[in-house]
Amino acid sequence: MRYQRTIKREISLSGQGLHSGKEVSLTIKPAPRNSGIVFYRKDKDVSIKAHISNVADTAFATSISSRGVKVRTVEHFLSAVSGLGVDNLFVEITGSEMPALDGSAMGYVDKILEAGIAKQAEVISYIKVVKPLIYEDAHSRIMCLPYDGRKISFVIHYNHSLISKQELTILVDEKNFVSSIAPARTFGFLKEVKALQANGLALGGNLDNAIVIGEKDIMNPTGLRFKDEFVRHKILDCIGDFALAGCPVYGHFILEKSGHSSNIKFMTELLSTPECYTYYSPQNNYKTFNPALTLTPVFA
């Protein structure tokens, strides 16, 4: 197994929140081994660890909270971090929502690669699926299978001629993530924008940070980055949501019509079903054991 990793130097960036529409600044700092990814709301003096037990909301984005203080829309950043194999970071943020940047994970990826990635003097802990698990709800179906690595198969169905059915299977490693997943942007339908904004969502959405789908055309002048950019972005979101397990999870994940809520509920169920996975930890000299994890997500 690989060693834990952080960044070599601080990163600073700023931008507008996709849903809040508010400007926010980030300072991303190297963190010691075994720290995980920890957000710090500078305006509230509250730290929030990126962990599934801190998930507070999954309506159109994934938000985490502690002591009543939230950081919204963390999935694109966590996808970049997970896709690049970075384990330990301190993330100082001046507001309640992560910057949307261009609606993909590529802005975060570029900054992390520019800063450089540093190997740390301890190997990672990780989870490996050893037995199939199926999660189903009214809209989605997710299954995991044993696999030596991280592989995701995703199928989406939309009643719209510009999307219809798209499916993709990809081995999630750093090279594939950077070239094939990180550039894929979030998307929404023009006919739904007013309703979202009336509910305090998509207030910062525009053609620079989202794909906007009209009745017959893509509204963005530059068009799509991939012909199947929609399913690629769903995989991007999935990687970010699954990163909230707190360590890499190895297996083959097969998802149909899944979103943030289903992703989080599936991962919660997996971590609460210890017969389906093995947890490997250097603190246990990499002897395998299945910890009975007690998870109490805030959201219902």
Please, could you describe this protein's structure?
By secondary structure, this protein is α+β, with helices and mostly antiparallel strands. It folds into 2 domains: 121 residues, Ribosomal Protein S5, domain 2 (2-Layer Sandwich), CATH 3.30.230; 159 residues, lpxc deacetylase, domain 2 (lpxc deacetylase, domain 1). Helix content is 20%, strand content 32%. The chain is built from 6 helices and 19 strands. The strands form 5 sheets. Strands 11, 12, 13, 14, 15, 18 and 19 form a 7-stranded mixed β-sheet that branches. A hairpin with a 4-residue loop joins β12 and β13. The protein is globular and about 55 Å long. The C terminus is likely disordered.
Overall pLDDT score: 92
**Helix/strand structural class:** alpha+beta
- Which CATH C-level class of the largest domain is it? Alpha Beta
Could you say how many structural domains there are in total? 2
Could you tell me the CATH topology label of the largest domain. Answer: lpxc deacetylase, domain 1
- Gap from first CA to last CA: 35 Å
Largest beta-sheet details: 7 strands, mixed
Poorly predicted tracts of residues: 287-300
Q: How much of the polypeptide forms β-strand, as a percent range?
A: 25-35%
Number of helices: 6
Question: What fraction, in percent, of the residue positions are helical?
Answer: 10-25%
CATH H-tier superfamily of the largest domain: lpxc deacetylase, domain 2
The 3D shape can be described as: globular
Radius of gyration: 18 Å
* Architecture per CATH nomenclature, i.e. the level-2 architecture of the largest domain: 2-Layer Sandwich
What is the chain-wise order of helices and strands? EEEEEEEEHEHEEEEEEHEHEHEHE
Count the beta strands: 19
